[in-house]
Amino acid sequence: MNVFLVFAHPEPKSFNAALRDRAVDVLRECGHAVVVSDLYEMKFKAVIDHDDFPDPLNPAMLQIPLEQEAAHARGTTAADIAAEQRKLIAADLVIFQFPLWLYGLPAILKGWCERVFSSGFAHETTPSGERRWFENGGLKGRRAMLSLTCAGAETAFQPDGRHGDMDRILWPIHNALRYAGFDVLPPVVSYAVLRGGELGRANALDRLEGRLRGIETDTPIPFHSLDEYDDAHRLKAGIAPRTPGQHRGPGYLSRTPSS
Amino acid sequence: MNVFLVFAHPEPKSFNAALRDRAVDVLRECGHAVVVSDLYEMKFKAVIDHDDFPDPLNPAMLQIPLEQEAAHARGTTAADIAAEQRKLIAADLVIFQFPLWLYGLPAILKGWCERVFSSGFAHETTPSGERRWFENGGLKGRRAMLSLTCAGAETAFQPDGRHGDMDRILWPIHNALRYAGFDVLPPVVSYAVLRGGELGRANALDRLEGRLRGIETDTPIPFHSLDEYDDAHRLKAGIAPRTPGQHRGPGYLSRTPSS
Lengths: 259, 259
Fold this sequence. Notes:
2 copies of one chain form a homodimer.
Chain A (H helix, E strand, L loop, with lengths): L1 E6 L7 H15 L3 E6 L25 H11 L4 H12 L2 E7 L7 H10 L7 E2 L5 E2 L10 E7 L16 H14 L3 E2 L3 E3 L6 H17 L46
Parallel strand pairs in A: 1-2, 1-3, 3-6, 6-7, 6-8
Antiparallel strand pairs in A: 4-5
Helix pairs in contact in A: 1-6
């Protein structure tokens, strides 16, 4: 497999960097090719703005989807974005390694997604009206997985936990990946990384390694398919909406955390 | 009231800018004082990195919460962050005006939250072990509200909609605001802003105005209180976890969108 690892932490000595290094080592040991984008090291531009479109279709007013689509069609996508898009095209699996900050992606990674998963590349409505999104998105046929750290304990991220259900917290991110066409694998979450001590961190590294060794046969998180929706973008009669974590089975709400 | 409006859109002619302007006009007409941070115009630094801590407690390794707390205690918080924190302290109500991008905050606004809602300021564990978070967070006594635009139709953001339930999409953002101490008011969502035409946009502006005219008596979204959790950070026996949108009542799943 070709694996593309997107890394977002400012500190080279961080535990996130240790997780990245373990992932790269294990994946290469398994015979996969690995490419890494270290967003902080690259000083990746985090913010979409007028500078992304030096030759705009509409100089009077920036409409981002319009300009992204025009740039994609004309081959004038900004060089730093186009380079990341080429890595995505070449990848079978994309791994995002990051710390969960305020229940979301670090800004540099959120901005990477906004700029790289552009309209025209990752999703679009074609001139004939066809929608390229979700399982028909620009990155279909590829798999994506989040690998994240958080300061809180696993108990606090249960459905009845103080920070709320981790599956629910990650749902908008997973849905954004699905929107771009990815099959989304269950995440690897390393909890309580600041308080777990050396043993806790060693266990977290081993858990990530274990997941990566079996990743070729991992089952993606189920999403509704396009044909389950009607023309008003609602589920057809008789189809109940999925909820985050539902795929974990009926014991989900009462599951016991592993740490 | 003192109102602080945080604005995140790169285009001065955008509909988000029109919503911002209407909000400012209405709030001032109602006798409130309004301060605006236009993050793009300010070129607000979106990314936490080593540059935020020029005189670090630990030069060998950046641990962000540690450095944020030390900077806060010593009064050395970066000037651009401290200025925003002063606006928050002075505010009774904070409004965030932004486009929903990939089911989340624009990167520049996510980064503003990461840098400004810092450890030591918005949340912390005191030396005596007291947790300042959620209803005991640094910004307690203040209210916050999201006002956002999205390209999709309201039908697509219902619980059975193609993009998923808007309450669920916004839940991590709302919980981050709650974590910092805010009472969180229900959001104002302007749907289908690109396709709604002039009438749709006029209606959206009027809806925002209507909400703002009644905002002093608005009821916040309910969250679990700190005393509902046990020492393992889980809800005490017999307390069922709240779900996003639950406060809308039992008709929630079958509600008919207004547009």
